[in-house]
Each structure stands twice: as C-alpha cells, then as structure tokens.
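Sample entry (258 residues):
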Amino acid sequence: MRTANLLGRGAAAALCVALVSGCNLLPADGGASASAGASPATVAGGGGSAGTTAPLGKAPVRKATIDGWKVYTDPDRVLSFEIPADWVVQRQIKPSQPSDKGLHLDIRDSDGELAAQLHTRLKLPKATCAGGVTELRVLLSKPAKVPAVASADTIEPVFVYRTLLGYKYFGSYGLTDKPAGNGFQACTVENTVNGPKSVGTYSFGTAVRHGTPAPGEKTGLLDKYGLISEAERFITTKRFKTVQQVIMTLQISGDAKA
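Predicted structure, serialized as tokens:
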C-alpha cells in the first residue's frame, strides 16, 4: 500500500491550535468566515463584503463549480482554486521552497493530511543528477488549462503523476510544463510551470522537484512504493482523484500587478 510522509490525524490537533491562534489558517470563499481569534493580517478569503468590486487588475471573485465545494482566493486575488468544504488552506509560516516573496500554501484534507502545496515566484537552484539516470514511469498525464509562458524547453501544461526508481519507486504529482528525460529514463522530474508575471514559476502538487533519495534520506512529500502496481492503484483512489480535481481548478490572473 502507499506510504507517504503525511502528518495524519495528529495534524488535526495542530489545526485546532491554528483555529484558536489565527496564526496561519486561511478560510476559503463560498461562505467560510474567519475564526474569532484570527488576525486580519493573516486571514484571507478574497471574497470581500456583498456589493464590493474586485480591484482593477485583479481576478474577480469566483464561485465554486463543484457542488459542495468552496473557493480559496489569495489576498491579492491573483489566483484561486476550489477545495471540498471540509478541507483547509494554510499559509506556510516558514516557506518550504525558495522564492522571491512568493505565496506558499499547504492544502489539507478533512483528516488534516497534507494533500498538496502551492508555491509561486519560485527561485530553484539548477537541477543536479546526484542519483544518476533511472527508470521513469509516467502513470498519468492530462492536459491542464492553466496559464503558462511557452519557451523552447517547455511543453503544454499537464497534470502528471510520475515515478522514479530508486531503492523504492518514488512518486509525485502536480502541474508541469517541463518534459522529463526521454519518457522512459530520467534523473529528476520537476512539477513546475513557467507562469505569467503575476506568479512567475509556480508549482501546485507534491514535490516541486525530485530524484531518487538515498536510504535514510528525508523524502518529504514523495509517495513511496515497493511495487509499481501500488502506484497504479493509488491513482485510481477517490482521494487522488479529489486532489487532482483541486489542482485542475487553479485559475491565475495574468494581468494582476506583479
């Protein structure tokens, strides 16, 4: 079965603390309101009060298209996405990825498990190939209608699930416009998109970039499998399909002020 480095139900208790302190829990649109102790500086629903108009150059407030879901919109109304009503979005207190003053979010499911992360304005170091070229499996690739700035070394954006073979099969999912290896072998895979000026290079998924960790090395959000058939089963589960839906609802305003 799939094993991942998730916080599990223990994270739910931490979320309760966040609800009390208001330190980094962000409600979504669709009727969700800030907790009583939340600070206006850190709470962002993006919906505004009734009758308000989105500031010039910012994306208009949207409504959920999936029944029973809600919309998260960032404070600047540059990006938004839909999540199930009982999921939450948290701003990372300490960004887990290098960026130029980017937005860094954790998206958690109803059990408090980390389902995906969103990062903007990424400033990633040049990829290395310390682990060497290994077997690449592309288990899922689906066109994604998200903004991207094309270049000579990019492809049309897709939502993808890929594994690399190390001492186990290591998998990650997310949006990308970066091809990996020759389709059968690769050293690393990158789940990033070269976006418009408003967000720069962005990532919405699990690992921003991954290779094949050595035994004992931290694996972060990478999925780990003993058999490739376990990864194939995972992408048929309801949870994976829900996460995929969340990521595919991403909308970005390319005209927003950078």
